[in-house]
Design a protein that fits this description.
This protein is an alpha/beta fold. It is built from twelve helices and 13 strands. It has two domains: about 5-170 and about 335-345, Rossmann fold; about 185-330, Glycogen Phosphorylase B (Rossmann fold, 3-Layer(aba) Sandwich). Strand 6 (about 135-140) and strand 7 (about 145-150) form a beta hairpin. It is globular, with a radius of gyration of 21 Å. This is Glycosyltransferase family 4 protein. Its EC number is 2.4.-.-.
């Protein structure tokens, strides 16, 4: 049986994008359009190359699926409209946000915001990974200042329909280790160098000074050269999935202390591996955690210290909800995303 063709446009190959490619390849023959859009000075050249690639490919394809809104989503949605090909944009977070004080969010850059706006207008449907990317507000960073984001906030006149399709996770890969003993008082978080403050890396370093008998692990980045830390704070660098899973399996707790978080993939992975979560009161984080962990209401070190002390005595058996692993298995397993994604793409 010949598979129908589909055009996939991606700016990068994060694990969740690779995962979607693998899911869709079971049903479609995929034509992948990718350039290194991080090299912003080459964006005009990439747009020209993309135009020719799309003109050659688009007539063969049943639909166009784009990950993230950005410069790369402009031509695919425009040509999709011209050639009557359905186009979908999976929204992940930065493409729905503008937080200038933290240098975060595609929509803080006027030209990039315009490219996103036109892409969202021309798209057949938007597929945000959480409700918070439609509209969200929080005062986590500053009780006197509300941070508001979401594509409905930034583009109030946008009429493009949307369907929330949450991320999904491989519950057979992300799982507690057999005969693996969790380290006592071990905390882990996943950050990047660019998002160190955004995701609370500075708070974790401060906790290291307060709780010197505890171990704090930061995966995803090397230690910044000018950052002074205590000996109980370890920077693990970027890790392949297997090694990251091993660290999750050995840790008691996971921190997701973000000021803004489109979804929280690492949070879900850690919960699947048996970590009890402590997350900030922003976006989808409280929904993901439910009653299986604790929520930090304000970005203050004194409040975080208090929540850490509570976390050490957190008895998962007292919760009528479920364990962290069971919650993610029920709400965000990979099969759920696959079914929702295939159904949505097949109905248009």
């Amino acid at each position: 049986m010949v598979k129908p063709k589909a055009l996939i446009v991606v700016p990068s190959f994060q694990s969740f994008i690779v995962q979607d490619i693998q899911l869709l390849s079971e049903h479609y023959e995929l034509i992948i359009n990718h350039y290194n859009w991080k090299k912003k000075e080459l964006a005009p050249i990439y747009l020209i190359r993309q135009l020719f690639h799309l003109l050659v490919s688009i007539s063969q394809c049943k639909f166009i699926l784009i990950h993230f809104g950005g410069y790369w989503s402009f031509l695919p949605t425009l040509l999709g409209k011209i050639f009557s090909k359905p186009s979908y944009i999976v929204l992940h977070g930065t493409d729905c946000a503008a937080i200038p004080e933290l240098n975060y969010g595609s929509l803080r850059i006027p030209l990039l915001k315009w490219f996103c706006k036109k892409s969202y207008e021309w798209a057949t449907m938007l597929l945000p990974v959480s409700n918070s990317l439609v509209f969200s507000q929080n005062k986590f960073n500053n009780p006197n200042s509300t941070i508001t984001n979401g594509f409905q906030y930034h583009f109030p006149n946008l009429n493009t329909p949307h369907t929330v399709i949450p991320n999904g996770f491989d519950i057979d890969f992300w799982k507690p280790g057999e005969n693996v003993r969790k380290g006592q008082h071990t905390f882990i978080s996943v950050l990047s160098k660019e998002q160190f403050i955004l995701k609370g890396g500075d708070l974790i370093v401060q906790l290291g000074e307060k709780f010197k008998d505890y171990t704090f692990l930061i995966a995803g980045m090397e230690k910044p050269e000018n950052l002074s830390t205590t000996k109980n704070v370890y920077f693990l660098g970027k890790l392949p999935p297997e090694r990251l899973r091993s660290y999750y399996q050995k840790a008691n707790f996971y921190f997701q202390l973000s000021i803004f978080e489109g979804f929280g993939c690492a949070l879900c992975e850690a919960m699947l591996c048996g970590c009890i979560p402590l997350g900030s009161d922003v976006n989808e984080i409280p929904v993901i955690i439910g009653n299986t962990g604790l929520i930090l209401k304000s970005r203050k070190i004194a409040e975080l210290e208090s929540e850490v002390n509570k976390l050490l005595n957190f008895n998962i058996e007292q919760n009528t909800d479920q364990t962290p692993r069971n919650r993610i298995t029920k709400l965000y397993n990979l099969e759920n995303r696959k079914k929702m994604l295939i159904k949505t793409l097949s109905n248009n």
